[in-house]
Amino acid sequence: MHLVKRPRRLRSSKNIRNLVRETILNPADFVKPYFVVPGHEIKEEISAMPGNYHFSIDQLLLELKRVSQLGLQSVILFGLPECKDSEGSSAWQKDGIVQQALRAIKAELPELYLITDLCLCQYTDHGHCGIIKNGEIVNDLTLERLGKIALSHARAGADMIAPSDMMDGRVAKIRTVLDQNSFNNIAIMAYSAKYQSAFYGPFREAAHSAPGQGDRSTYQMDPANSREALREIELDLAEGADIIMVKPALAYLDIIKQAAVKYNAPLAAYNVSGEYAMIKAAAEKGWLDEKKVVLESLTAIKRAGAKIIISYWADQAIKWLKQDRA
């Protein structure tokens, strides 16, 4: 007699589906990005990213109290300075916007885990992630500036530094500077496989960081390459990265999976602005169910192997998960 295989037995009710579910999202999985700007009483919505804002520090504190109560434990800060120059010098000043925000948040919400994005693009008048000499991004000169920024963030209260510039050797430089200044316990989350992606468009509006000329293809990765991503990750780990990252997430699930299988290190994925904006726009048109699509997408990122998910939906996802489990 032919025996019919019946995998549907394990899908027959909600309870059994919950029992055998392989991938489960948790509030602790998420990090939410925030954009902090100079001034007071500023909360301005970013047009390309509805539901996300430019916050002055006073308004950011109110927002972070709200999301902390909801269950968000970690955030990553991006600063928009008052002044820009060719070297991005405001990025490492003691009274820089991120440095001010770190001190204020630590005073009000000491339990919140603070990650800082480390790059020059928001601070340079040309919008590139490194120092330009004779029309070229000068790698090693840029490293000196990145070290200064990392040290200033650590002194202001950052718990983790996240270099996103994609310069060669930046993890080793930052680790050396931190250790030499007794910040041995400050972790580094490296944007290890950061692609030259078209999905960053809304972020560049949010961070005022679009390059004035050219693009970032000489330092960010070619979207066609996967083995190169593994080489980049291996270098960052060898230089002292504590956490590795793949960015973007949804278009690069294959890279997340390869990294998760190959490396025994915590892996983050950045669910980027373009991924957010597409789903948000379709949901506003009524073409998609936002909650279902978002939770499916975030589950896919975790299923691929990411332990940490940086997402603009972080607080909303936590809220939805709590509602579903109530």
Automatic annotation (TrEMBL):
Homooctamer. This is Delta-aminolevulinic acid dehydratase. Pathway: Porphyrin-containing compound metabolism; protoporphyrin-IX biosynthesis; coproporphyrinogen-III from 5-aminolevulinate: step 1/4. Belongs to the ALAD family. Zn(2+) binds at residues 119, 121, 129. 5-aminolevulinate 1 binds at residues 204, 216. Mg(2+) binds at residue 232. Transmembrane segments: none annotated. The keyword Metal-binding applies. PROSITE patterns: D_ALA_DEHYDRATASE. Gene3D superfamilies: Aldolase class I. Its EC number is 4.2.1.24. It comes from the Bacteria. It catalyses: 2 5-aminolevulinate = porphobilinogen + 2 H2O + H(+). Pfam families: ALAD. CDD domains: ALAD_PBGS. GO terms for biological process: protoporphyrinogen IX biosynthetic process. One of its GO terms (cellular component) is cytosol. 5-aminolevulinate 2 binds at residues 273, 312.
